[in-house]
């Protein structure tokens, strides 16, 4: 068994039609959803299938409410004049995960063609197409057109009209570039063609280049390059570095990106979703110290904004599987924005420390929330704990005290400072409360400016605990250190939320807080899934056992957002094998995935929000931790692995103490060792 074999189960092979789910590929900095032809033929947004346009981290606009939003860049599509006469039939389309490549085989009335597409995971401004065609007459290969997206309708009812300027076609008609200006975005886009067999050239008008192949046979490479105008020369130089063997080099780069860490379970469907989930994570996030992608990555689905909370649901999977470079880059990015977030804390929340923006600014010098707020979701007090967890756990996995002091500590310290500034004691109380304006809870259906949001209490407790632990490790003694310890000793106001009849905590304080069965998210499970606080209390255990009763629609196989994926992770951390299988069995009845288990939707029935990478991160965590788990501090092997999964294999899974574990389960018995799987087999 190898990472390649573990991923092969998730390869997609299908005969799609024009209505099929568009596939998603990317490299962490840019990506796209491809249509049934392996191209980007849809113009604009199509219900149920989303958008087919390349997205890139550099192409963003600061718009309404001073919010930064990513925009679609361009599409590669058939030239409409040549498409219909070709009368194409899609023979087969595949996504080969280990190679990071889609392969689409087409037949036309005049010949056949194979279109391969991939994004280079190391040279991350580039997408590559390799095209083979063979015909019996001229016109066997219809012309292509590279179309800049100059009209976009996007978030908060914003309609942007842009322009393409400074377009240039090289004398040999093999390279074209121009500058796409959309709102505040100015982005260079380029196409270069190389031919190993036959001839492929471009012609250009003022809006888009047409790409045409001559001859009956051809093998061609198209390289698409994208970068902010400030990086124009860098990107164009890089474009010249590709040769006709670039697709092979791209596959090899993907093999390096995967590393060697994997799990392999004997349930083909569960294993396939594990493999696809990891691919979508790597397609969406790269080791770039820049704002990480939106919850649907670069697929063009959903919100074009970055959310720290969603990233924290993916981050533990990156750590477990050894993608520490990506995990570190997120923490380094947040550390670089500490000062801006401190200003936000003071000006908007009238608090100290660091409140991490709910919809995080992509660029610097942000005026976020100073020009009004699009909604009350922006004021979720629990949010500051999630960057702290990412920072703390990355420090543990890497074991690098110098890095932790420079990058992790400012993030953890800022979060703890924030919660210290907003906790208070009410008259006659021993425990500390939180009642702050403006505010909202994680449940989002529970109103505004309420007392003692359960999520905020959990986040405050976690942030204090984590700040103390990291300060001890780094031998620091900040002024607030004793205050944090004192608050934890007194405790936070969980008792005010306890509903004795239900045996659980309500989501906030007050008579109207009893939302049992009407919640959007199972906030009561946070200590089980998102914020490890230590030993579980009875209320949290009860909430787990009553989880199907907590949220709206759950009894009818309807789940908002990441709720079902959260139940899956909760079962994994509880060591509940039956609960884990029960959650997996809900995916199809809940319409939480498509019929082929290609991806996860953002919510049940929400077909317009495919490739919800947030839930894919939770899925990865759930299956990884069912095999190797240290969420509770001590190492547990096979903690939630169903008995029906008789043969399990894993290699290279990391734990917070910096150790790397490999092992296998044969006939119900585990054989585990530090290091590679070869050690286990040698011992056996």
From TrEMBL:
UniProt record, GO biological process:
carbohydrate metabolic process
Q: Which taxonomic lineage does the organism of this UniProt entry have?
A: Bacteria, Bacillati, Bacillota, Bacilli, Bacillales
Instruction: List the protein's name.
Output: Glycoside hydrolase family 65 central catalytic domain-containing protein
Write out the GO MF terms: hydrolase activity, hydrolyzing O-glycosyl compounds
Q: Coiled coil located at which positions? A: none
Q: Which InterPro entries match?
A: 6-hairpin_glycosidase_sf, 6hp_glycosidase-like_sf
């Amino acid at each position: 068994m190898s990472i390649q074999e573990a991923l092969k189960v998730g390869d997609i092979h299908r005969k799609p039609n024009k209505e099929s789910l568009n596939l998603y590929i990317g490299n962490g900095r840019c990506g796209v959803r491809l249509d049934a032809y392996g191209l980007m033929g849809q113009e604009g947004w199509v219900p149920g299938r989303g958008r087919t346009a390349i997205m890139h981290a550099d192409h963003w606009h600061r718009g309404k409410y001073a919010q930064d939003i990513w925009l679609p860049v361009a599409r590669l599509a058939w030239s409409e004049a040549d498409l219909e006469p070709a009368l194409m039939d899609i023979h087969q389309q595949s996504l080969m995960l280990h190679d990071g490549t889609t392969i689409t085989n087409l037949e036309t009335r005049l010949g056949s063609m194979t279109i391969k597409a991939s994004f280079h995971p190391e040279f991350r401004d580039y997408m590559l197409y390799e095209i083979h065609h063979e015909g019996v007459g001229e016109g066997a290969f219809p012309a292509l057109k590279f179309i800049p997206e100059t009209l976009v309708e996007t978030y908060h009812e914003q309609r942007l009209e842009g322009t393409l300027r400074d377009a240039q076609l090289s004398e040999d008609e093999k390279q074209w570039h121009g500058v796409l200006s959309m709102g505040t975005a100015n982005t260079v886009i380029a196409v270069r063609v190389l031919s190993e067999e036959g001839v492929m050239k471009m012609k250009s008008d003022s809006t888009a280049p047409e790409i045409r192949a001559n001859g009956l046979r051809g093998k061609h490479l198209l390289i698409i390059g994208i970068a902010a105008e400030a990086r124009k020369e860098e990107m164009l130089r890089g474009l010249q570095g590709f040769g006709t063997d670039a697709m092979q080099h791209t596959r090899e780069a993907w093999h390096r990106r995967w590393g060697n860490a994997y799990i392999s379970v004997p349930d083909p469907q569960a294993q396939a979703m594990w493999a696809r989930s990891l691919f979508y994570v790597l397609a969406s996030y790269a080791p770039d110290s820049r704002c990480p992608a939106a919850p649907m990555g670069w697929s063009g689905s959903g919100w074009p904004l970055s959310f720290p909370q969603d990233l924290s649901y993916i981050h533990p999977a990156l750590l477990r599987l050894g993608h520490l470079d990506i995990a570190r880059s997120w923490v380094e990015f947040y550390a670089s924005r500490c000062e801006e977030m401190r200003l936000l804390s003071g000006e908007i929340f009238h608090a100290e420390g660091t409140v991490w923006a709910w919809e995080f600014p992509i660029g610097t010098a942000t005026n976020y929330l100073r020009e009004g707020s699009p909604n009350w979701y922006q004021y979720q007090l629990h949010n500051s704990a999630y960057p702290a967890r990412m920072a703390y756990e990355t420090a543990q996995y890497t074991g690098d005290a110098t890095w932790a002091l420079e990058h992790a500590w400012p993030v953890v310290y800022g979060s703890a400072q924030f919660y210290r500034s907003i906790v208070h004691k009410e008259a006659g109380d021993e425990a500390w409360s939180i009642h702050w304006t403006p505010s909202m809870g994680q449940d989002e259906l529970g109103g505004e400016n309420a007392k003692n949001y359960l999520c905020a209490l959990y986040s405050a407790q976690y942030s204090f605990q984590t700040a103390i632990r990291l300060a001890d490790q780094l031998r620091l003694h900040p002024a607030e250190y004793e205050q944090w310890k004192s608050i934890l000793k007194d405790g936070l106001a969980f008792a005010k939320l306890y509903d004795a009849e239900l045996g659980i905590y309500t989501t906030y304080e007050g008579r109207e807080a009893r939302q049992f069965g009407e919640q959007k998210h199972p906030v009561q499970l946070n200590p089980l899934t998102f914020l490890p606080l230590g030993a579980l209390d009875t209320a949290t255990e009860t909430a787990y056992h009553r989880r199907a009763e907590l949220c709206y629609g759950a009894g009818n196989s309807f789940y908002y957002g990441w709720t079902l994926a959260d139940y899956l992770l909760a079962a994994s951390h509880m060591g509940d094998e039956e609960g884990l299988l029960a959650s997996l069995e809900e995916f199809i009845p809940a319409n939480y995935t498509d019929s082929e288990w290609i991806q996860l939707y953002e919510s049940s029935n929400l077909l317009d929000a495919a490739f919800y990478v947030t839930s894919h991160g939770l899925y990865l965590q759930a299956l990884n931790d069912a095999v190797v788990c240290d969420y509770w501090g001590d190492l547990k092997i096979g903690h939630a692995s169903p008995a029906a999964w008789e043969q399990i294999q894993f290699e290279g899974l990391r734990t917070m103490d910096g150790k790397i574990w490999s092992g296998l389960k044969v006939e119900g018995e585990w054989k585990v060792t530090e290091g590679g799987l070869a050690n286990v087999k040698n011992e056996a």
